[in-house]
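The protein record filed here:
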Amino acid sequence: MFDFQRHCGAHRISRDPGDHRDGVFVAVYTIVGGIEAVVWTDVLQGIILLAGGLFSLVCLATDLPGRMGQIFEIGLAHDKFWMGPANFNLNERTIWTAIVLGVFTWIAYQTEQNLVQRYIAASSTREARKATLIYGVIALPT
């Protein structure tokens, strides 16, 4: 007989009552609150991610003697803000490889569950476009 757990790396179902409680809570608020509950959860998660990133940046910058200036100085010294040379060579890191990667990332992004959820939940095409734009702006820093 095939042992799924051994061959596929599956883990046992959690016996922690807290996991089950959390799962039931999420299922109930999603069923009761519908898409509005899901959207507000996404908003809260986005705020937490953004705040956590900013908090981490501030903590890092305040520990350095040069503060934010030192972060940019080190980044510039190691070409972290440079997109690469302008010559067309897909085997090296150039501006063109960044553009190709960006296009494929954008194509994949159009079918991401979070974005499709916004398309479907929007009341009109205009609202769907607005949600997509807001999501794109918020997704950049995170």
Remarks:
- The chain is about 70% helix and 0% strand.
- The longest helix spans residues 17-63.
- The mean pLDDT is 79.
